[in-house]
Each structure stands twice: as structure tokens, then as C-alpha cells.
Amino acid sequence: MEALRQLIRIFTAKKILLTPESMHLLRSLTEEEVQNITSIIQDLPERDVLIISHDLERFIQLAKNLDADTFYQLKTRLLVKHGKKLYDDYLTLLEQEAKSISLILLKQHAERKEKKTREEDNTARAASSSPHPVTTSTSHSPSSKLPAHPSLSSLTQHQSSPIKTSQSHHSPPTPLPSEKTRSSPPSTPTPSHHSTPSIRREPLSPAQPSTSPAPSSSPDEKTGSAQSITSIMSRPETASPDTQRSSYTLVKTPEAPVGKRDLTAFISMLTHRYQRLRELILQRPDVQGVVPVRRVIKSRDDEARVIIMIRDLDRREDRITLLAEDEHDEITVRIRKNDDQKLWEEAQELTEDDVIYVEGIMRNGTLYAKRILHPDIPLGKELPRSPLEEYAVFISDLQYGSIDFLQPVFERFLAWLEGRDPDQRLQAIARRVRYLFIVGDLLDGIGIYPKQYEELTVKSVRGQFTGAAELLKRIPAHIDIFIIPGNHDPVRLAEPQHPFHEKHAESLYKMGNVHILPNPSWVRIGVTNGFPGITILLYHGYSFDYYANDIPLLHEAGGYDNPVKLMSYLLKRRHLAPNYKSTLVMPGEEDHLIIDPIPDVFAAGHIHRTRVGQYRNILLLEAGCWQGMTPYMEKTGHIPEPGKAIVLPLHTMKPIIIDFLGEEDIHHHA
After folding, report:
1. pTM of this prediction?
2. 416-447 pLDDT, tens per residue?
3. Whole-angstrom Cα distance, residue 476 to residue 427?
4. What b/e sequence results for 358-389 when a residue is b if at least 16 CB atoms lie within 10 Å of its CB, and e otherwise?
């Protein structure tokens, strides 16, 4: 009853009139539902209070099943989708958004309940098998029982003074050779967190952090594994005190070919692709007995196993015919709809230039497929975790220079990195941020699409670089910043893309903690004496456009709205642009877009949405944008989701999404 009385006092303070009907409804609520409404109502701005007052009973029915984080998340989604239309029928739209994630909330609730039950069963079994009685302890030793999903509301209220970290000094960020390691001096140790209850989440001013909901997942491909900022896991007991700072290594930064390229360069690149992907396929334990196409054609054996590159593809309602080849000969492969339903479904994702293993039966010069395999990621790959509690932050697509660049929102992000966020829990994370990745499109560029020049506030390349550098200078010097180019940046569009030219980006090259890399690049972070580090694959994602629109199954699975599916598709093929038509490529002696080595984290941008997921223990991070909807986006129906940063705790590898977007930002740019 005390919780209900507190809620009524809040209603009174907010000048919300409680009718007999609404009072009767409130009395029928459970204590948990009352607490949910309390957490929402106490932080409502005046505009929202006026809206819900008109239909209070409907609001109570909606809010009783939502926590504050989810409510503000729904509001943010509404603002992005509807803009000023939000004023028209606020509660109707809120209900629609709530329904769209209700299954996700139920799934998360079921998972938490299942995990709690499992832990209780384990504790009971341990107690029954122990010769000594089990006693309950409130100490924080490694054996202490922790909540199934500890949240930030369970972290300590005792915040120590900000950590003083010595600033590292780096040489100018020219492109560096592979496997060159940089290290930083040690920093002052920081206190660990202890669990204590009831810390109210303070909103970011004026934006409210929230997370994207997590869609359902398959065994290999898991989406939405990001945590809310209110469910950050506290540091595991095995993590060592932060008495040192980790370093980074540039694993692979392809040197993009220069000069005029002839037909020989294309042949060399495609030959290298076939040979390397063939090697990866042959490493699979389920692939044996592969022979060249020449022997299959001449052999009288019925069964055949080949590794081929698809040259052409003909789709019919009842069959798919491939014209494929190895290094010396070509062969026709046919997949029939009625032979094997699973094989038929897999064949729907095939595209030209795929390198695949085919097992089948030869009939009249045609290989009828029974089995198809891709290079793929080996099963059993483990996701490493750092012994230090450090964080990496991933953002993309600032589009600096655009009239729709959300500079106030980005400055809110910078204020957080500077440690000036009003939320002490976010301050604690910011103090431990060690790496920042900007995954392409730092600038909006010039002449990228028709009439873009009219939509620029900064109309020169040098001016855009200078303005972006002035913002990035606010980031503390102990944070290493890695930047790759994207399709808007002033480098050639063909991949692999060069790093920014120093004569244009001189202001960035003068910053000691900025490292300018090509697109794509492999970087290993978190390296210590006893820990080899975590490998990050950075790729802007220009090829995503083709796969989101031209591969039927990917388009039907959500296209741009499901980048986890797109990224999983590429990992399965071990190539960032398996179809030559999917992106412009600068040919050379090697194919630099092969996904080799296997990363621990695959980070991309380009499509202006923030998503996280997992494929065979590789984290997939699709970093969002910092640009509102442009007229060009509006014409093409592309709806951005700006203002979010992905934060990766290297000691747990469980991503967090922080939303820096405020309502006034969206309305200003709507």
C-alpha cells in the first residue's frame, strides 16, 4: 500500500487528476505494476503529463507492463519514426510500439526466470551434496551468489573521485604496417563496484539513454544481444584490478592498389580469392574427396565433389542452374526444388562469384547437387574476454558538414566521454573507455548525391575535416581513436579504400591519439602481457546495399532493418563483397576483402541503424549515425536511427547501447 500511496502523491505533484475509475484501476494493480508506473511517471516532462491526463486509464493499462527504460525507448522510436506526428495521437502510437516489442519483453522475462530457476536448482543440489550446512553470506567473495541479471540499479552508490589517467602520446596516425603494437603508460587503479540496492537511474540531460529491442535469434545467428544501460553486468570477480592499460595492434591494414589496372589484375584477384576460399573450405572436417572439375567431367563415377566459383546463375520456379568453374574448367550444377527442401532454401541465398563446395551426382554432363557448403566460420570458436575492465565505443556516419548533422546530440556524446554526464553510472563507464572506433563516413562529403551541395553547412573538404577534428579534440587523450573511410569521405569509392590523404586531413593527423586506417582493417585491442587481445574487423558496409535489396531472402528478412542477417551472410562466405557487383573493387595481386583472419568482433556502419547480434561467437556491431533524415533519405524511404553509441565492455563482451538523442533534437530536424 505504501507504494500506491507514493504513486498517488506523485500524481498529485504532477497535477494529474485521478478519477474514481483511475483510482479503482490503480488499486487493482500488483506492487510491481505500481512500481513500473511510478518509475515512468516521476520523470515525465510537462508535455507528456498533459497528454496522458486526457486518457489516464489507457495510459495506466499501457504503463503497468513497462519499466522506465522500455517506456523511454518506445518514445525514442516514436520520435524517429513519426516526428511531429507524435502530437496527434500519442497513446495510440505508444501502444503500437509496445505491441511490436511485447514478444521480446516476454522472451527476456522468460529467460531471466529460467536462469534464476536454474541457479536455485544448482544451489539446492550443492547444499544437498555438501557435508557441511550452507550458510547465506552477504560478503562479496567470488562464491557470493549474484542476481541472475544484475542491473545498474544494483551497483554501488559510493562513487569515488574521477580516475586520473596519464595521457598517452602517439606519433602521427599515418598508415602503419601489420602487427605493429602501440602501448600506453599505466593509469591509476580504480575501485571495483559492490552490489547495493536502489540507485535511481538519472536521465541524460537532455537526452534519455535507451536500447533497441532484441529480436529472436537462431543458434548460429543471434540478434539484439545489447544490454540496457540499466542492466550492465558488474565486473566479474576474476577480472584483475586495473593496474595497467592495454595496448593495441594493427593486425591487417590492406595496402590498396594504385594506378591503372588492366585485365591481368582482375584475373589475379579472382584467382587469389578462389584459391584462398578453397583452402578455407578444405579445412572443414566435413569436406573430403574434392577433385578438380576436369576429373569430374572425364570420370565415369556417379558421385562428385568439387569446389567451384559461381559464374552465372539462372533461377526458375522448380530449379536453379549454376554455371561454375574452378581454375581450369567449367561445369553446370543444378539444384532441384523437389530433391531436398533444406538444400533448396540454402540455394536461394546463392549469388554470382560465391565460392562453394558441391557434392552431388553426375548425369549427362550436369552435376545434380545433394549438398552445398560455404567456407563459413568454424564451430567452437570462443569469444575472448579481457582481464581488465576497459570499454571500446563504436560509432559511425557522423556526416559532418551536412545540414542535418545532429551536432548538439554528438556534443552530448562528447560530454559523456569527457566525464561530464550527470549520471554517475555513465561517468564510471566513461572513465574506463579505452578505444573509440568511427566506422566510416566521418564527413558528409561533396557531390555524393544530386543537389547535396545545397544541404551542406561546410562546403569544402578541408573545412569538413577541420570542423570534425575540432569536435574530436574534446575526446580525452588517453582514448585511442580509430577511423576508417566510408563512401561519403573524400577517398576513392573502390575498395579497399585508402586512408584519408594527409593534405586534406592535416588537422586529424596532428592529433596524437587518432589513427587513420584503410577500409577494411583488422585491429587487435586489449592486448596485455597475459592476454593476446580482441580482434576487431572494421568495414564501412558499402556492399550492404546490394545484399539488402538484391538477395530475395535477405530482403524478405528485413533488408536494411536486419543488418545482423546481412553481416552473418558475409561471414558465412568469408568475404565482405562476394558478388563482384555488390561494390566497386580495386583489383590487385590479392583479394583484400576476404575475411581472413577470423575476427572476434565485426563492426560496420553505412545503413544508419544501430543493431547488435552474434554469429558463431563473433559479435556483430552495426553502428548507427549522427545525422537526421535528409530530403534524399525521405525520397528513398530510408529512416535513420541517430544518436546511439555501442559500448563494448572488454571484460564481459556484452554490448551496451546508449542513446544520446533528445526529443527536441528530432523535432528540430523533423
Report:
1. 0.69
2. 999 999 888 999 999 999 999 999 999 999 98
3. 13
4. bbbebeeeebbbeebbbbbbeeeeeeebbbbb
